[in-house]
Amino acid sequence: MHDTLKKVWQLFTPAEQRKAVWMLLLALFMAMAETVGVISIMPFLSVLARPGVIEENPWLHALYASLGFAEPRTFIIALGLASVVLVLASSVFKTITQHLLNRFVHLLRHSISSRLIARYLAQPYEFFIHRNTAELSKSILAEVDMVMGNLIQPFSQVIVQGIVLLAMLALVFAYNPLTALAIVAVVGTLYGLIYLLVRRRLKRIGTEIVEANRQRYQTCNEALQGIRDIKITHAEAAYQQRYQQASRTQARHMAANETLSQTPLYLVEATGYTGLILIALALLLKSGDVAHVLPALGLYGFAAYRMLPAAQIMYRGFARLKFVSATLDGLYRDMSLPLPTAAPTNQPPIVPRQEIRLSGIRYAYSATLGKPVLDSFDLVIPVNTSVGIQGPSGAGKSTVMDILLGLLCPQAGTLSVDGQPVTARNLPAWQAAIGYVPQHIYIADASVAANIAFGTAADQIDMQAVQRAACAAQIHDFVMNELPQGYDTPVGDRGIRLSGGQRQRIGIARALYRDPLVLFMDEATSALDGATEAAVNEAVRALSGSKTIVVIAHREASLKDCAQVIALTPSPHGIRGDFMLKT
Ligand SMILES: Nc1ncnc2c1ncn2[C@@H]1O[C@H](COP(=O)(O)OP(=O)(O)OP(=O)(O)O)[C@@H](O)[C@H]1O
């Protein structure tokens, strides 16, 4: 448990840790207010039952005398009113404190999930090659909530209720130490035994629920992203079943968690009330006078009324700590991902004047570390020329492009621009100089203009640049003549309202929006008809008259205008780095 709490503590920023200490203090005051509220009824009950107690009890006597009461009846009324005021004041204080605690917990949820998404986004591209994106969404959206709901919120309650419990016990102890010890023994043994019995099961279902959640998110993601293939292959039932299985496991485990963390309440409640009746009978038999028994019974009754829920809430907090520990482990691991040192953002773009060069590149994907895709690979791209990269499927064309883009970091060799190596520090400056059209274009559910000016805030979109890029990409006429709201027309989720070729042209326009001097195109025109492809290629070349263009294409025709074509060929040893120059 110490380990779990340490992990939770480390999820907080230093400011949140300080705030947590304040919250702890507030919780302490809240518990004290609660205790004062409950205890304040005791003098009232005592005097009500037996006014003679005013003379016997020095505190009550001093109060009675100093406030100048003439008769017990008005004193009883005053005590009753004072108790009501104290209970009301304590309720107001508790409500305010509870709101502050709730605010703290929910802002913490917001802070942790925001920091988690920021940490993911700061990871190098290679991180996303290894991790399933549905799993990352699950961590940001579901697991932070799960940890907050099952751990931090209940834990703040454990503290408040723990203090209430201690205060009540102290009260009973002051009145009758033996009874207090008996309560500790009975309630402690009951909860302790139940906790020992269920904790393994809680941990197991807590681990299984992480896996069930992963499956739910992944299935949902796959089913909705691959809906076309699902429709064609009639795979709806298979996906539905996969989702149902995971969802049912999750539901069963959630229910088991609820039950396991609630069950003792009924048992302990029954034991508590049995104990109360036994104490009442014992007191009555001993004194034979109901008036003598009433204050003691009032005290035990109130103590039980506050203690049993407090003990239950504490037990539930500990049970949930066990249940959620597997989820917390995953969250803690991801929140501890190293943050790459942020490169300065105000560097001017690295615009090549002579050449872009790859030298001695070795790159192996981590899944196949022993089998590099590229080994001792060299490539020189002179500026203001267009270079084509050709080769059979799987030869490593996209890998070369990803290294040129700075998305993949080679294990050996360098990418340099005019002799200046591109490193993590100046990578943003290199990327600011390039435009890229990927093989699969991602279209956001936004307007045509927002998709072309991708990543630009809506009020900062340069419409002139949008139109210039759209004209070059041969999409301007379509946007103006056929879309109902022109550049403001929403294109639907992943551009579902557009044809493949239209999506591709939007991708090309996006790469051209910032009018980059270097343009990388990975199968960028493969979905276009011959005439449109020729027009796009011509427009790209003509756009500034002096661009360095690197094109990957399967089709010879797509590369016919390139000044040189590099053909990647797999070597007999599985190492692909040989290339031949066609001019
Ligand atoms: N994430 C990855 N993990 C492991 N291996 C990978 C990964 N991505 C690509 N590969 C492997 O690297 C090799 C080169 O892939 P790459 O995508 O660069 O080829 P390509 O020439 O662009 O192919 P295509 O023309 O089919 O797009 C392939 O053998 C592929 O299986």
What does this structure look like?
It comes from Pseudothauera nasutitermitis. Residues 356-583 form the ABC transporter domain. Pfam families: ABC_membrane, ABC_tran. This protein is α/β, with parallel strands linked by helices. It is built from 21 helices and ten strands. The protein folds into two domains: 2-335, ABC transporter transmembrane region fold, CATH 1.20.1560; 355-582, 3-Layer(aba) Sandwich (Rossmann fold). Helix 1 crosses helix 14 and helix 3 runs antiparallel to helix 13. The longest helix has 51 residues, at 72-122. The chain is elongated and about 110 Å long. Adenosine-5'-triphosphate binds at residues 129, 365, 367-368, 373, 391, 393-399.
- If helices are DSSP runs of H or I spanning 4 or more residues, what is the number of helices? 21
CATH topology of the largest domain: ABC transporter transmembrane region fold
Structural class: alpha/beta
Mean pLDDT: 84
Q: How many distinct beta strands?
A: 10
The percent range for strand residues is 5-15%
Pfam family, one: ABC_tran
GO molecular function: ABC-type transporter activity; ATP binding; ATP hydrolysis activity; ATPase-coupled lipid transmembrane transporter activity
GO cellular component, one term: plasma membrane
Membrane topology: Multi-pass membrane protein
